[in-house]
Design goal:
about 30% strand; binds flavin-adenine dinucleotide; five-stranded parallel β-sheet; Enolase-like, domain 1; FAD/NAD(P)-binding domain; 28 strands; 3 domains; alpha/beta
Length: about 425
């Protein structure tokens, strides 16, 4: 992200005693990071996070990995310890939902009946699991997976092992939950719409690397397939009938078929919506005093010139910072190269780049797909537009430098592990 004009006194916010303050709707990573940045930038007025969940802000990536596996506890979830909020005079209203925004009155109505005024408002309401009305989805034993409460419930069940779990959805989260569930000793079958899992994101050749590792561990795939019906007995799930006509026994089903931006409040308030809350590069919405960040925001990227909505951890942090600076009237633009990561069994992966530009790009691999130690580059018109390292570490800075520089590269050199990335 870039920034400038870091004067000590915010220009866009009223810091007098009449300051109505900064209100953040959503106690996720984007909201918490924005609160931290407001204080770090010297803002001394009221900061309130309205957080619907009963938890102080937490981050979600461990939920499907170490937390679900029982290897990590609550501490791994907290971007800031509980003591941070009172120490920084940040009010977190947990268990309280914002129910309406009145942009003209600069006020937010809350589920406890109170009304909170704001000088500037950040909407960081994240995303919600996509709900598909499969027949039988209401049966006991059918779950979605987004929150800490979901992860706690699943951990309790899966840690005993021996369940017949059918995962509907073979995207990143479906694959991560499948890996963890299998490691905990459960029988896992994955349904997905692609021939090869993850191929929409990283292509068939690389998706196959992840699929092979899952199969090696005993995960079964039924592809391409979805659920035609979830079967039950006495209100409890007993199986899944696939669209390919296979009946899979199941006492547990997890639906992980993507997420949708949580735009209800913003839409009601009349903000511009298009695949999320539409915001500028500095994350300002169609109302100049309302900003949006994280999974809910569709922002204009200055490099690609296109709107993009990211559903990733690093974006929530970067966007939280930019939104806070913009709320303070400073120049800040979300221009980070998108980044995300995953862990599945012993496969660790990091990815940086512009996914939308990879479709027509040439795939260049440095290292060995068979050994599952490689860096994959997507090269479009001679330039690296994305790069992904699997079980090779400390190369993200070099990958981002290659992407960011926009220089033309020799693809033979790119594929040659003997040539340092910095020399390409
Ligand atoms: C299981 C799982 C694993 C993941 N793993 C990875 C990973 O490995 N790598 C990666 O890059 N990304 C991962 N992600 C994605 C990453 O967690 C998200 O991109 C990130 O959480 C987005 O942060 P956010 O603050 O925008 O939204 P959220 O984390 O969704 O937080 C939004 C918060 O707003 C609250 N809220 C909504 N509406 C209201 C309201 N009206 N009033 C008050 N509060 C409200 C919600 O309850 C929620 O707590 C994962 C996500 C999940 C679910």
């Amino acid at each position: 992200m870039s920034e400038s004009n870091s004067a000590a006194t915010p220009t866009g916010a009223d810091t007098s005693s009449a300051d109505a303050g900064m209100v953040i709707i959503g106690g996720g990573l984007a909201g918490a990071t924005a609160a931290d940045t407001l204080r770090a930038e010297g803002y001394t007025g009221p900061v309130t996070i309205v957080a619907e969940e009963p938890e102080i802000p937490y981050q979600r990536p461990p939920l499907s990995k170490g937390f679900l596996a029982g290897k990590e506890g609550d501490d791994a979830l907290l971007p800031y310890p509980a003591s941070w909020y009172p120490e920084h005079d940040v009010t977190v209203r947990t268990g309280t939902a914002a129910t309406a925004i009145d942009p003209a009155a600069h006020a937010v109505s809350l589920s406890d009946g109170s009304v909170l005024p704001y000088a500037k408002l950040l909407i960081a309401t994240g995303a919600l699991p996509r709900v598909i009305p499969f027949p039988g989805v209401e049966l006991d034993g059918v779950h979605y997976f987004r929150s800490k409460a979901d992860a706690v419930a699943m951990k309790e069940l899966l840690s005993a092992g021996g369940h017949n779990l059918v995962m509907i959805g073979s995207g990143w989260i479906g694959m991560e939950i499948a890996a963890t569930a299998r490691e905990l000793g459960n029988n896992v079958t994955l349904l997905g719409l692609e021939d090869v899992p993850l191929s929409v994101a990283i292509g068939k050749e690389l998706g196959a690397v992840f699929a092979a590792r899952h199969e090696e561990a005993g995960v079964r795939f039924v592809l391409p397939a979805s659920a035609a019906e979830i079967k039950g007995d006495a209100g409890r799930v007993t199986g899944v009938v696939t669209t390919t006509g296979v009946t899979l026994p199941a006492d547990l089903v997890i639906v992980a078929v993507g997420v949708v931006p949580n735009i209800a409040l913003a839409k009601e308030a009349g903000l511009a919506i298009d695949n999320g809350i539409q915001v500028s590069g500095s994350l300002q919405s169609s109302d100049p005093d309302i900003f949006a960040a994280g999974d809910v925001a569709n922002s204009l990227h200055p490099v690609t010139g296109a709107y993009a909505r990211s559903e990733h951890w690093a974006n929530a942090i970067a966007a939280g910072k930019v939104a806070a600076r913009s709320m303070l009237g400073r120049d800040a633009v979300l221009d980070d190269i998108p980044y995300f990561y995953t862990d599945q069994f012993d496969l660790g992966m990091e990815y940086s780049g512009y996914g939308a530009l990879t479709r027509d790009a040439e795939l260049v691999v440095r290292g060995s797909l068979e050994k599952r130690e490689f860096i994959a580059f997507w090269v479009l018109e001679g330039r690296v537009v994305a790069g992904m390292n699997v079980n090779i570490w400390d190369v993200q800075d070099a990958i981002k430098e290659l992407i960011g520089s926009g220089r033309t590269v020799d693809t033979q050199a790119l594929a040659d592990p003997q040539i340092p990335l910095e020399a390409i």
